Design the sequence.
């Protein structure tokens, strides 16, 4: 493998890893703060993705008019659909808005995920704090099925592609980007943006937990819930907010992922398994662990899917993540950065 | 003859020296009390006997065999049973089952796939378990679920579980903590009775001096991981170092 | 009888009667009636009832007794399926060797997976089993499905799935034997139809073979539940630590339970192939593991009959509920005023037909939230509340089994 090929796989790995890390971050946050194993987290990722689909659908609601000046091949006057948005804002701006519907959907995703997160925590998760982890897994697993089915009923069983803005739906010359002309790699621009986006979100979460009082209390709660409770701090309300934040993170990870993988109602379940593997490899409840494991597994997966790796071990691309998960769990019982005693009973 | 020999045992948790060069020897057939303020390392010491912790240095010999490096179930199988500081029982099972399980472990060893026979047809085990429950005064409640018991009953149940195994050495970690005076006295009577009828060796951790002085033949005082005094109860009572440890003179 | 106490014997006899009479009981509606679509008494579906019943009974021995939640049992189901088809390919269509091998193969695989996974507990165990099963799925789907060792299609024939070709050796295949799965000459497809009035009942050889096997393994699971071994497994669930300090080596107990349940899963997989000689990798996918979890929980984990009930319900919903479409709904609610009728149909249509998974998910959530003991646990609770008081007054509880609280 030459350097360019390696770089390409590094980018692939970072790309996958960004998504894994973002989902795992929220998952491990919920686990670390609330002590809840949330099997519906993949579904939250999916809901985020469908925010983009919904927004695009909303924006393209059209008025159907008959254009007498044109005819179809049977000679009938042609029906034309004009999105209302183009009628209101003019064609150029209207089309621009539609074109940018994925990034714009972020504005929709945040409130939607906040509401869903709060509703979910108050309505369901709250009642499961004291129940065994198996019960938490089961009820959220049921919820994941329900969410998936609601999506299916609303958006159909097929994939729902939404394109990235045209300006970003091309490839970037990575060499030029970093200013090294020895590098001769091009990479889809949107994927590079996704990485940057993930980095910003991850950075924001860490900064929030590190530098705000709220974050400090939550971190203390993660370390020792009972003591914080004894201090008379209303930790429950904060945990509700934490759950909502985790839901928002999952939703953001999902909404931006739409141009990379067109969402279908199965998306949640597809990402659920892998994100749990990531969390467990990183160590349940460890935020840096989730991020590290996300990128580690993303990179390993990328390199395992090269022909070079597949020639050495056939099928390695299919199983690498699970092999790594098994090895890490056996050699480091609590994952890469897990704390002692978490989830042992 | 000393049935339990503890030599130079030390254990560190990070920056905390929980046990510091502890020596102890427990004579067969006696009741050996370990007393000391909270956090002195008493439970930690017991943990080193039953395989929950492995000391950093030192040896623990029981009946001529080392207890270090073997698994908890092996330690139990050679005759050491423990009552924990917070009751450790099988909460979802009935009292009778709670006592049958250790009895099975005694009869069948650490592992046996005995899947064809009905548990309630194992009359030897069942009768033995019932007899032990009778002895400890829980027979009437034998079909109730352990989790539904009062705290005191849970402790007694745990004691019954240990006794059903006829251990050579019984370790009791604060068996009367949180009990009412009446329950405490009942427990003292029970333990006394056991000493008479079974003559088994006991190591007992206790805060309640009334309990300690009614039962113990010998006392070791542990403070900050070190045995600061050991003697017969009469002599320990007057020992100034013990008072100091309890009154908490902070001087090291 | 059978070395069981009175209640268990009654339960076994009850299940046996229901099972044997299933072709009649499941077909309550006359063939021509509009309700005939709710009949479940056709061979294919009834076979699934009992086969997935076996799967769930086995899963319950692990999860219900020890509390170890495996998300990887589909691997054993799939392995059993492949093993059975291989026996067809090599030796011929008699199902007996296939069924036996499927149990053995699943047993070996579960020793390996269980030995490693049981080094961890809690969610780590769940994820390890999930990882192993996903790995098995990926391997069966891709690598093991490529040509190897001169075998075209490898061990699993990849995406297409493993099936029997005329070019296969089938060395014990005789001319007299039927050219499809059979038991010593009795084809599994053989169905005797009994026309009774407007009804038509189908008695299928394959179904009865599965039913007999299910009753045998159900009986075995009752014995396990009531045995000292079962008691140890329940003790693992409540307090594994205590059990260790009680002189019991818990790891081999958990492994034994894991392997037994793995063999049940393999048996179920083998039977699936014996009924329909085709094995695909999707049987190993984690959704299949999830399905058996759903079945067990829905019916009631840790109860004897719960998993069978759960398996039956889910398979019934899958087949029958999913057939109800809007036209049928409209037929039902035609008596309502049109607008109300339309509204009702519109609401219901999300829950039936293609949307039956929604019903399943909701049902499942409701059970986990409100009935932690599953349907059977809920029934037992209800019954206790109804009859409990009276019984206590009349007589002390029979001194019978110490294991009575895991009853029914
Ligand atoms: N597993 C452990 N990890 C870290 N510190 C421990 C552990 N177990 C006990 N300790 C510490 O060791 C000291 C002795 O504890 P313990 O033996 O329980 O005291 P006690 O004499 O009250 O039974 C305490 O300060 C306790 O916090
Ligand atoms: Mg203590």
Sequence:
């Amino acid at each position: 493998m030459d350097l360019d090929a390696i770089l390409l796989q590094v980018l692939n790995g970072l790309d996958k890893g960004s998504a894994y890390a973002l989902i795992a971050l929220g998952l491990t946050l919920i686990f670390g703060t609330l002590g809840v194993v949330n099997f519906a987290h993949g579904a939250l990722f999916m809901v985020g993705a469908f925010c983009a689909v919904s927004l695009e659908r909303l924006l393209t609601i059209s008025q159907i008019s008959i254009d007498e000046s044109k005819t179809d091949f049977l000679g009938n006057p042609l029906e034309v659909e004009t999105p209302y948005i183009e009628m209101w804002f003019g064609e150029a701006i209207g089309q621009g808005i539609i074109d940018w519907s994925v990034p714009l959907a972020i504005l929709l995703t945040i409130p939607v995920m906040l509401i869903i997160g709060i509703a979910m925590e108050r309505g369901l998760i709250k009642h499961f704090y004291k129940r065994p982890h198996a019960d938490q897994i089961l009820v959220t697993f049921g919820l994941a099925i329900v969410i998936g089915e609601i999506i299916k009923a609303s958006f159909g069983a097929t994939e729902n592609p939404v394109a990235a803005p045209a300006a970003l739906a091309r490839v970037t010359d990575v060499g030029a980007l970093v200013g090294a002309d020895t590098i001769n790699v091009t990479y889809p621009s949107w994927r590079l943006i996704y990485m940057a986006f993930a980095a910003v979100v991850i950075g924001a979460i860490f900064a929030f937990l590190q530098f705000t009082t709220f974050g400090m209390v939550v971190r203390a709660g993660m370390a020792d819930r009972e003591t914080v409770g004894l201090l008379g701090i209303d930790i429950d309300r904060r945990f509700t907010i934490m759950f909502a934040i985790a839901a928002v993170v999952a939703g953001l990870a999902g909404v931006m992922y739409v141009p990379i993988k067109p969402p279908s109602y199965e998306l949640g379940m597809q990402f659920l398994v892998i994100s749990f593997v990531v969390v467990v490899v990183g160590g349940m409840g460890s935020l840096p662990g989730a991020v590290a494991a996300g990128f580690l597994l993303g990179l390993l997966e990328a390199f395992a899917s090269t022909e070079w790796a597949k020639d050495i071990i056939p099928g390695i691309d299919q199983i690498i993540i699970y092999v790594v998960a098994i090895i890490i769990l056996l050699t480091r019982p609590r994952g890469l950065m897990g704390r002692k005693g978490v989830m042992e009973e | 003859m000393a049935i339990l020999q503890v030599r130079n045992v030390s254990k560190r948790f990070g920056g905390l020296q929980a046990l510091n060069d502890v020596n102890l020897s427990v004579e067969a057939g006696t009741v050996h009390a370990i007393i000391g303020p909270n956090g002195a390392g008493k439970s930690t010491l017991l943990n080193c006997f039953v395989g929950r912790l492995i000391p950093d240095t030192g040896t623990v010999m029981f009946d001529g065999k080392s207890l270090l490096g073997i698994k908890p179930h092996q330690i139990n199988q050679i005759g050491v049973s423990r009552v924990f500081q917070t009751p450790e029982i099988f909460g979802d099972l009935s009292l009778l089952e709670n006592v049958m399980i250790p009895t099975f472990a005694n009869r069948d060893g650490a592992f046996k796939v005995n899947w064809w026979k009905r548990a309630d047809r194992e009359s030897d085990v069942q009768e033995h378990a019932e007899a032990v429950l009778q002895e400890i005064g829980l027979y009437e409640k034998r079909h109730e679920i352990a989790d539904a018991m009062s705290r005191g009953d849970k402790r007694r149940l745990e004691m019954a579980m240990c006794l059903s195994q006829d251990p050579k050495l019984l370790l009791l970690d604060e068996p009367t903590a949180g009990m009412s005076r009446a329950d405490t006295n009942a427990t003292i009577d029970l333990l006394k009775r056991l000493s008479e009828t079974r003559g088994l060796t006991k190591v007992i951790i206790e805060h309640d001096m009334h309990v300690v002085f009614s039962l113990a033949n010998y006392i070791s005082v542990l403070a900050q991981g070190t045995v600061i005094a050991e003697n017969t109860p009469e002599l320990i009572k007057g020992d100034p170092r013990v008072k100091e440890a309890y009154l908490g003179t902070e001087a090291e | 009888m059978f070395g069981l106490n009175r209640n268990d014997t009654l339960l076994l006899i009850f299940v046996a009667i229901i099972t044997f009479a299933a072709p009649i009981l499941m077909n309550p509606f006359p063939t021509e009636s509009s309700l005939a679509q709710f009949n479940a008494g056709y061979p294919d579906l009834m076979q699934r009832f009992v086969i997935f019943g076996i799967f769930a009974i086995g899963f319950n021995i692990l999860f219900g007794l020890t509390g170890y939640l495996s998300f990887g049992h589909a691997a054993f189901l799939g392995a059993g399926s492949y093993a059975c088809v291989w026996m067809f390919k090599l030796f011929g269509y008699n199902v007996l060797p296939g069924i036996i091998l499927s149990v053995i193969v699943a047993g070996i695989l579960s020793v390996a997976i269980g030995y490693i996974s049981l080094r961890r507990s809690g969610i780590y165990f769940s994820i390890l089993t999930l990882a192993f099963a996903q790995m098995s799925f990926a391997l069966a789907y891709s690598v093991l499905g490529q040509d190897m060792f001169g075998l075209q299609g490898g061990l699993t024939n990849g995406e297409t799935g493993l099936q029997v070709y005329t070019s296969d050796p089938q060395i014990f295949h005789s001319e007299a034997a039927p050219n499809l799965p059979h038991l010593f000459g009795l084809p599994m497809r053989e169905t005797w139809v009994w026309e009774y009035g407007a009804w038509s009942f189908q008695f299928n050889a394959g179904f009865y073979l599965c039913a007999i096997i299910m009753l045998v393994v159900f009986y075995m699971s009752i014995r396990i539940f009531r045995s000292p071994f079962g008691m140890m497994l329940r003790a693992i669930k409540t307090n594994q630590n205590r059990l260790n300090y009680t002189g019991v080596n818990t790891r081999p107990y958990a492994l034994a339970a894991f392997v037994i349940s793995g063999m049940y899963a393999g048996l179920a997989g083998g039977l699936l192939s014996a009924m329909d000689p085709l094995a695909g990798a999707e049987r190993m996918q984690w959704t299949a593991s999830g399905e058996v979890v759903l079945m067990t929980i829905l019916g009631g984990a840790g109860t004897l009959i719960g998993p069978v009930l759960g398996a039956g319900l889910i398979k019934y919903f899958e087949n029958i509920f999913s057939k109800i479409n809007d036209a049928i709904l409209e037929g039902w609610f035609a008596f309502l005023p049109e607008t109300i009728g339309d509204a009702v149909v519109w609401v219901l249509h999300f829950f039936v037909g293609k949307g039956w998974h929604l019903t399943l998910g909701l049902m499942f959530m409701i059970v986990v939230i409100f009935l932690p003991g599953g349907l059977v646990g809920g029934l037992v609770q209800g019954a206790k509340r109804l009859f409990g008081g009276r019984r206590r007054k009349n007589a002390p509880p029979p001194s019978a089994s110490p294991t009575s609280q895991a009853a029914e």
